[in-house]
Design a protein that fits this description.
There is one protein chain. With 209 residues, the chain is mainly alpha-helical. It is 72% helix and 0% strand. The chain has 8 helices and no strands. Helix 2 packs antiparallel against helix 6 (121-144) and helix 7 (151-173) runs antiparallel to helix 8. The radius of gyration is 20 Å and the shape is globular.
Length: 209
């Protein structure tokens, strides 16, 4: 009798289960929403795009763009039980950040140092955080609605994708392209945010499973 009652309860519970949208659709929603917030922020901070900065070497943006697509998609993919990625694929964002750093360093070696600008460091970091937070909140909500079992890796990919969105915005707003500034104020905070995802994911992703 108890077994029959259990089956009956399970059938009732299953009727309220909503189907999970496919990963590509959810990823596209997150990407469009994140880019919308990014565009609005950049538009407001650049005097309606009149003072928008074009990076001296546009190819520096390529590894960041790849990081956004890979990390965002992979974090959503891994939030479904049974989905896995090989360690070599999970390390791709790390190597993309390494490529970004090497591109910055190569520009420093091959080109004369750009004149140092009187630009406040905390302004860049503050902008980075403001452009990262909306993307982070949306992606966190999406993932936490699923079953994020591997919290450390998902947290890492979550923070990497979100901070990469912020990185694009900072590159479009900040005119200071000196090596010191790019490494200390752009690269280092973004890379630190990315690595902090290992710990943050373990804390904030609180699915009961």
């Amino acid at each position: 009798m108890k077994t029959e009652k259990l089956i009956e309860n399970l059938v009732k519970d299953s009727s309220s289960v909503k189907p999970i949208l496919s990963t590509p659709i959810v990823f596209l929603f997150w990407l469009l929403a994140s880019l919308s917030f990014l565009i609005l922020f950049v538009w407001s901070r650049s005097n309606e795009l009149n003072t928008l900065h074009s990076p001296e070497k546009s190819y520096e943006i390529i590894p960041i763009l790849i990081s956004i697509f890979f990390s965002g998609y992979a974090s959503i993919h891994l939030s479904i039980p049974g989905n896995r990625l090989r360690p070599i694929f999970l390390s791709i964002p790390f190597f993309l950040f390494l490529i970004w750093f090497l591109l910055i360093y190569s520009k420093y070696l091959l080109s004369p140092e750009s004149p140092k600008l009187d630009f406040e460091f905390h302004g860049c970091i503050q902008d980075l955080l403001w452009m990262t937070i909306p993307s982070f909140i949306i992606l966190f909500y999406i993932i936490n609605k699923r079953i994020p079992i591997n919290k450390t890796w998902i947290g890492y990919l979550l923070l990497t994708a979100s901070s990469s969105i912020g990185a694009i915005g900072v590159l479009l707003l900040c005119p200071d392209e000196t090596f010191y500034h790019l490494v200390k104020v752009h690269f280092s905070p973004i890379f630190t945010l990315s690595l902090s995802g290992f710990l943050i994911g373990k804390i904030i992703l609180k699915h009961p499973i």
